[in-house]
């Protein structure tokens, strides 16, 4: 947050007002907190939050450039990769699904795909194999229920954390593994020895309860 | 899936696939294997997570790009974000029909499989080229029930992914999702059983020999498999 001031400082201040107030308490902490980038992506997804995006950018752009330098060995292509990757992060933030991995994993897959397609374009044919063929994760084709996904990412802003305790134990356990221990649905399914469908439905049920709980606190 | 996948890509192939450094032809076979193999799906997720944390922990290069980065940031945030997730068209499972049999094609292969070339048939065997390959020859290979593929020695690398059905050779039996890799000089005689046919994805490296016209003419079988 603090380190992004240099990048955001020259812009007008209007965007600051778009930020949700409770974010201030979260971002007051200068250290990289677990969940920080996932939160930032959520704010970008939910209200195109430029300040949250600037934070992400100032952290990841220089690292992506270092990654690009390693892969391409030249600065021009490395910067091209940084720009394409970060543009995708901005545009596709609503596709980010925290239950399928953390923000850095998602950004890595975007960078990898951008790089792959950049190299393929040199020998470009329309029927050529593209990153979309090879890696399904980038655009999350399994996404079925965008409203529940939105809620999943909203959870990370910790608003709902106090309501966790009121969940039925089975749902709470699944939620804890997915959100606090950052396990994939598949891992939770294996670990608890319950079908993947059950994991998903317990999450949906728990989200419904939490949504209710939140509505109650609002009214 | 009733059949458990037994033959997986090695760790090195998986690593290169996740990094995006594997040749596209081979990556296509690995991606299709992963679609069919829950074990490798998890492994793949783990590798992605690992690379994600590596990226996050990367020491940023001492940057001389402050201005460029500022311009980049300004440019990006002027663009309209996608409000709604763009979904891939769902529910339309791509199928391939050969010998009056309809085979479902895994996601990774579906776009390429839709563009397959004409089926060339020889006895119980049929092949159809996919447009994918640049250095390697990528094709669908169908083997009817009770058919033996003539004994052959590989002049290059042969990568065969079983998409459906079952095939056997001197070394074992392979079912849907199994990935066989034969290196040069491996000799084998693959065959199907009397009651089950087989559809495979075949990726072959093409030694220069095959591209010379005369050898092709002298060896129609070699030409057929390419």
TrEMBL record, chain B:
One Pfam family hit: Cupin_7
Gene3D superfamilies: Anti-sigma factor, zinc-finger domain, Jelly Rolls
InterPro entries listed in its UniProt record: Anti-sigma_ChrR (IPR012807), Anti_sigma_zinc_sf (IPR041916), ChrR-like_cupin_dom (IPR025979), RmlC-like_jellyroll (IPR014710), RmlC_Cupin_sf (IPR011051)
Ranges in coiled-coil conformation: none
Domain ChrR-like cupin: residue ranges: 136-202
NCBIfam families per record: anti_sig_ChrR
Protein name per the record: Transcriptional regulator
Organism in which the protein naturally occurs: Alishewanella longhuensis
Native organism taxonomy: Bacteria, Pseudomonadati, Pseudomonadota, Gammaproteobacteria, Alteromonadales
